[in-house]
Amino acid sequence: MKKQRVIGLFDSGVGGLTVMKEILEQLLDVRIVYFGDTARVPYGNRTREELIRFGEEIVTFLIGQGAEVIVVACNTSSATALPVLRERFDIPMIGMVEPGARLAVEKTIAGRIGLIATETTVRSKAYSSGVSRALAKGSIPEDAELRGAWQQGEQAISVVRAQGCPLFVPLIEAGLANSAEARGIAKTYLAPLKDAGVDALILGCTHYPFLEPVIREILGEDVVIIDPALAVVQELELLLEQMDEREQTGSVGNAGKPETIGLAAAPSALVLGKSHWRTRYFVSGDPGLFRQVGNTLLQEPIDLVEQVTLGD
Fold first, then answer.
1. Catalytic site residue 165?
2. Which of 4, 58, 77, 231 is the most buried (most CB within 10 A)?
3. Can you give the residue range of the structural domain that contains 33?
């Protein structure tokens, strides 16, 4: 019988639910421990040092809940803190930027990729670098005409416009994704992308898929919407297969052992117990608000949300 893996997934708030939903729908043999850092949302105006510290605290907590793999379901943390977290923890981690950049390269038709994200992600230029790395590592457009033009050096493939959208996350966290206010703000943010003639738009924040209907309404059907969560699921599936193969050959190592920082990791058997569950939810802020907004956005019941205090 195939082992049911425990995935630790975290975001600044409810945005990571978009990634969680994709994982649960496509990978049936996983459980997810979700952490929303709602007491410190939004992350988009945080410093790199703060994001690293937050990440250390959260990853330590998730490992203590039995996580065998960490999904950093936050583009801001993926763009800034993830490289440091990978150095400090001996556990597999998947971020949003690299998978999202690869998917954008594959799906663009004209090579003119746009990005909407938090201001911190935009300033990091992580997606611009990610697109360049994806091309260097062999990712190519599915569109034959663009692929040929790029291979002949006649057409560039790059992020031509990146737009910070600082008001999107607070709107979504407040449950206002489908409001008139959200539509008005989205029109302002998306205008420069329309002017730049982007043909593919990366949703560079896991909150933004909740605004996809509004974004499609403004940009039109000709612009391909890139949700990095789809590529994250593919990468996660491959990683889990590799973990299974290593265990079968007896070369597992100590991938679940964190360095001694932040909270001490509790034995997973004590945390998970013997009850059957698919998802567990933890937040640093108001559990009731998370449950209310999460139920609205997912249109599925979130029954129990536990509050935990991390850091100071």
1. no
2. 58
3. 5-96+230-307
